[in-house]
């Protein structure tokens, strides 16, 4: 089957802007909130959200990259290559918004929750994802802010492309 | 995605350039981990590692043990001096008994060259060579390369001099293999009696004049005189060795450029290197020790990741 485009350019921008305003509804001026993107592909969404929020709120917002490789429960089942962790702030008593591009089994997020604790104990953690592939979870994890909910089966793949990485903003559904 | 091409780390000779680069890249990530307030990750929490040291060691053993603990592995330690080896047990019997207690990985130092390779053929666990006789000491070479890269960037075309007791040194051999695979040029320097006869067949150059070697290189790796391995006299006296091959501040400052000084430890201060050189800002000896933990974490993490 041909890859199906789920979101693209302008639509994607509208979705991202909506997510930002949803965040502002809860976190006001972000004075005690930080954003953490999950490696490898969640960091692009996190930095995009950070830029949009900085534009709307006219202030600097903390945003870090977190790698979960060393915390995964499946690293011996598939070959994984670690990426950079870059968090130059402490998350102790902060509100943390974890950001990833696609929520599928929930295992990456579980590892992310573990990995995050090396940087302090946050007072509250929320999850933001661009695409939620519902009914496919292996662990009880749900996102609070969701760009798009889709029904998909295991043999399909959701790919999120970013302008800065792939030359185009696009979300596609591909048959493996 | 990538992984190592080998199941055991027996020596640098047996691994590829891609393997070395993968280990050094992964070590960068672990260096970030060990500089966090919480220095521990749970990657190897289901693994038990045995450290078998048939030969004395402080740095390597502590470094391996710290690396294992920071990866959350369970660790058992063994040293030959306080074990049944004294009662006449063979190497394979000792190791098989330890493996019967369900150990997944063995880190071994032994005074016989090839001990790690021999073991890897006889037992099921993953083997990491922590030094076998005068043969190889792969993790030392990897941490040396990591420390050089940190200081100089890419090692391609860089000039490295290994100075001192090349004949008895496993560090020298592993370093030569590792640096050449990364594209660096290697020169060995020392008294003729302490340089193996066929060393040039490995593609390294030989220099017997210390000053010339120092003027040539970007990095000088100073090795210890291994008196415990010398069964005959290789040079007239320690004092004469120091006069000819010892590095002091006057000599270092008289060079036309600033070179990087390394030493795998333990240092014999005042013999191969004086205190003011070892503690100078050109020396990265303590960085080597810090990087050792990160590199060993990377090696064990990547080996454990193999099926």
Could you characterize what this model shows?
The complex is a heterodimer of chains A (176) and B (307). In chain A, the strands form 2 sheets. A 5-stranded parallel beta sheet of chain A has the order 3-2-4-5-6, with helices on both faces. In chain A, strands 1-8-7 form a 3-stranded antiparallel beta sheet. Chain A has a single domain, classed as 3-Layer(aba) Sandwich (Rossmann fold). In chain A, 28% of the residues lie in helices and 31% in strands. The mean pLDDT of chain A is 90. In chain A, 39% of the residues are buried. Chain A is built from 4 helices and 8 strands. Chain A has 176 residues and is an alpha/beta fold. In chain A, helix 2 (42-57) links the parallel strand 2 (33-38) and strand 3 (63-66). The longest helix of chain A is centred in the first third of the chain and has 19 residues, at 9-27. Chain A is globular, with a radius of gyration of 16 Å. In chain A, helix 1 packs across helix 2 (42-57). Chain B is of the alpha/beta class. Chain B folds into 2 domains: 12-136 and 289-304, 3-Layer(aba) Sandwich (Rossmann fold); 138-288, Rossmann fold, CATH 3.40.50.1370. Helices cover 39% and strands 15% of the residues of chain B. Chain B contains 11 helices and 9 strands. Chain B has helices at residues 17-34, 59-70, 91-100, 115-122, 138-152, 170-181, 210-216, 238-245, 249-253, 275-278, 285-304, and strands at 48-53, 74-79, 105-110, 126-132, 159-163, 185-189, 205-207, 219-222, 260-262. A 5-stranded parallel beta sheet of chain B has the order 7-6-5-8-9. Chain B has a 4-stranded parallel beta sheet with strand order 2-1-3-4, sandwiched between helices. In chain B, helix 1 crosses helix 5 (138-152). Chain B is globular. The model of chain B has no long low-confidence stretch (mean pLDDT 91). The chains are: A alpha/beta (176), B alpha/beta (307). At the A-B interface, loops of A face helix 1 of B.
């Amino acid at each position: 089957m041909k890859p199906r485009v789920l979101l693209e350019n302008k639509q994607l921008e509208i979705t991202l802007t909506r997510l930002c305003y949803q965040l502002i509804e809860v976190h006001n001026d972000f004075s005690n909130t930080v954003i953490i993107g999950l490696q490898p592909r969640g960091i692009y969404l996190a930095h995009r959200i950070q830029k949009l929020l900085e534009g709307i709120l006219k202030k600097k917002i903390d945003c870090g990259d977190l790698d979960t490789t060393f915390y995964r429960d499946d690293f011996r089942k598939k070959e994984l290559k670690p990426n950079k962790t870059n968090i130059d702030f402490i998350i102790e008593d902060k509100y943390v918004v974890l950001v990833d591009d696609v929520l599928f089994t929930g295992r990456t997020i579980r590892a992310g929750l573990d990995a995050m604790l090396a940087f302090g104990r946050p007072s509250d953690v929320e999850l933001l994802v661009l695409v939620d592939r519902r009914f496919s979870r292996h662990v009880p994890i749900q996102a609070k802010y969701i760009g798009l909910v889709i029904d998909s089966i295991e043999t399909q793949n959701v790919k999120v492309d970013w302008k800065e990485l792939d030359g185009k903003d696009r979300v596609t559904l591909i048959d493996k | 995605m990538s992984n190592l091409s080998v199941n055991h780390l027996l020596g640098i000779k047996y691994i590829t350039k891609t393997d070395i680069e993968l280990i050094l890249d992964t070590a960068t990530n672990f260096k970030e981990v060990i500089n966090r307030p919480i220095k521990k990750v749970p990657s190897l929490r289901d693994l038990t590692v045995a450290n078998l040291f048939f030969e004395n060691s402080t740095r390597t053993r502590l470094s391996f043990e710290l690396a294992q603990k920071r990866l959350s592995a369970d660790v058992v330690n063994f040293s030959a001096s306080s074990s049944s080896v004294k009662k006449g047990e063979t190497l394979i019997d000792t190791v098989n008994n330890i493996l019967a207690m369900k150990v997944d990985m063995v880190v071994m130092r032994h005074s016989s060259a090839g001990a790690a390779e021999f073991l890897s053929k006889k037992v099921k666990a993953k083997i990491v060579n922590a030094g076998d006789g005068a043969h190889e000491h792969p993790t030392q070479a990897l941490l040396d390369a990591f420390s050089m890269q940190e200081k100089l960037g890419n090692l391609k075309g860089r000039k490295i001099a290994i100075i001192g007791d090349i004949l008895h040194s496993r560090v020298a051999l592993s370093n030569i293999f590792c640096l050449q695979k990364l594209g660096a040029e290697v020169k060995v320097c020392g008294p003729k009696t302490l340089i193996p006869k066929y060393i040039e067949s490995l593609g390294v150059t030989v220099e017997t004049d210390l000053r010339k070697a120092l003027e040539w290189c970007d990095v000088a790796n100073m090795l210890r005189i291994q008196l415990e391995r010398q069964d005959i006299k290789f040079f007239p006296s320690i004092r004469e060795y120091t006069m000819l091959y010892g590095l002091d501040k006057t000599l270092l400052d008289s060079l036309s450029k600033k070179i990087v000084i390394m030493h795998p430890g333990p240092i014999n201060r005042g013999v191969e290197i004086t205190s003011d050189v070892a503690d100078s800002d050109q020396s990265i000896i303590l960085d080597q020790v810090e990087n050792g933990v990160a590199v060993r974490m990377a090696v064990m993490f990547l080996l454990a990741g193999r099926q």
